[in-house]
Amino acid sequence: MAVTAAENRLRHGAVGLPEVLFQAITDMAPGVGAAFAIIIGASFAGAALPLAVALATLGCFLTAISLSQLVKHMPTAGSFYTYTSQALHPSVGFLLGWLYALGYAAGFPLCIVLLGVIVPAVFGPASLWWLWVVLGSVIVVTLAYFGVRIATRVGLALGVIEIAIFLALAVTLIAKAGSQNTLAVFSLSSANISGYVGVSGIFAGLIYAIFAYIGFENAAPLAEETRNPRRNIALAALGSSLGIGIYYVIVTYGGAVFFGPSKMAGFAAYNGGNPYQALANAVWGGAGILVAFALINSSIACSNAINLATTRVWYAMGRIRLLPGVFAHVHPKYRTPDVAIIVAFLVNLVAALGLGFKYGPFTAFAILGTILTLVAVLNYIVLNVSSFAYYIRFQRSEFNIVTHGIIPLLGVGLFVPVFLTAAGITVFSFVSPLPAPLSYAGAVIGVWFVVGVIYMIYLYRVDPSRIAATKTVFTEEAGVEGSVRAAPAPGT
User: What does the pLDDT read at residue 254?
Assistant: First the structure.
């Protein structure tokens, strides 16, 4: 594998643990996740939505453990596809990277299109929703273009603000709920929506609970720009998945008991799809505008964080020519993948405005979120399998039955039914497919996957080294500032 030119490398050591932790946290979008992503699951899980959120916390934390074990040996911007290529096979790594390139590209527009819901609800008019989407997109691409240090520090500040506001709101809702407080929302009996009773409702609700968690793993693509990445990326993934998981459980519980467990089927549609704004107005009066402020912050911070992660993976794929080599171009001054950032900006505008004008901004958010969740859940399944396979095959001396055996198995067991539900694959009786247009996500991913398989076959015929390069770990030469080497990870 050829040495990557120093002028085309990212800025090594630009960020530390606080920045990369909040890269993961803001990618999870604590405000938007609680107020818009999780609430879609109420249409399926009903009053048992807090149970679905608790299970999502467990699954994502288990996956974060698997990720932390892989990043110890492979701190690279290629992250997921590199781990998989090393542990399983380069073909699997290529296809996972190919799916990531599409699925996580949906993350930028899904967060930014919500500005078309949040801002008009408070300031109006609804007809100008597209203007806020364009302005938000320009802010995000500007932050990304001028450097990872600026972008992550803005994300840190915005993340602290939105978490503080929503936790304060949750505590208020719980206190105001009074006698409606109940642990019944953590039981299967509360999942009683017609067509989604019991376990089927929980797994359908889990799709949108997991949707809110997507991002804890996206600290990993910043590994080449992070100081001590083996330690800091692992801590960021573990800390964000557990900490924000607890936060989501508290906020969702507060919303459910105050709104009324018996009415949760209508929670997602309440107040035009923005129920927490109405709840905040009910308990805080004029101060409820703080929630709108937190949601605007959350939308921009989430888009910023997803954009950082996605463009780093595109950069890594361009570096080994799985995407056009121009994606590996780095700005000579700001050391950012400028071409990838500009392309992501254009893709975002087309997706957000196109789907927004066709379905409305909230439904556009739900469609894009289902696409992203499908890819993320598949990524989590393969990540858990890769942790087990990597330590069995290449790090046998470090293998631990709990860390590298039981934990990955539990993660896979939780995520497989969620993937089948989101994809509409009814191989089990408890799998109830999603309604249209959410069900279109499975077809979109399926078509993209077939295109990826065809492209992979083509690459194997004309230049198989490009598939093999997915195993490469790019890392800093010890003691040599400004140089990067292509270093195979243990087991190559």
Answer: 97
